[in-house]
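Throughout our pipeline, every protein is held as a single compact record rather than as scattered files. Nothing more is needed to write down the fold, since each code stands for a local backbone conformation. The record that follows is passed on verbatim for readers who wish to inspect the format.
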Amino acid sequence: MLVTRPQLPAYDPIQLVGQVLSIDNGICTVHCDGANWHCTRALSCLVEPQIGDEVLISGPDRDRVFLLAIIARPENTTVTLSVTGDMAIRSEAGAVSVHSAKLTHIHSDQAVKLTAPSHEQENDSAIMKIGQMNYLGKKLDAVVGSTDFFSNVIGLMSDSFKSVARLCFRHVKEVDHVRAQTIDYEAEKLTRVHGGYTTLTAQEVMKINGDQIHMS
């Protein structure tokens, strides 16, 4: 029994090298061998073409020609990787590294989100300019050599506040208000309260106690 094989259609494949003359709404006009070819960028070609690029175009026939690759471009020109739609870069079993000799710039028109079990960042110096920042976490440990805060208003709210220092200096130019249910100050050696006018008052009982009391 004879088996008749289906006859494959005849193709006239195109594969040429040319120069990009113009780009209009994703359609590239490429000049090859004295003729202009109109083609779209293949999905596998991530490098965004520019006018003047030397490119490779290919296709099964004249009506289906695609720009496959950017072969050459003048030096000192930015190379842009671009796609239409969402894009994901994934390593199934290895690491992903991004390195640049000069500046690395990450920009988004909407938001940037980092998600990982742990985050580590190391810099010799850093500058952060944030319009508004909210931090939410369970615990924060910071170890720094020196810390300076400059602000118009600083507000602190806590159930418990603890401060330990070897030396503490506080200078208030105008008014210092303290409101508490109980105030307890204790010094091992000397306690000094001085002012141009000093007033000590008590609503119920005032007690002054000491081995010696000097009043002048």
About this structure: The first strand starts at residue 14 and ends at 24. Residues 14-72 form a domain with the OB fold (Dihydrolipoamide Acetyltransferase, E2P) fold (CATH 2.40.50.140). The mean pLDDT is 89. Residues 208 and 214 are 11 Å apart (CA to CA).
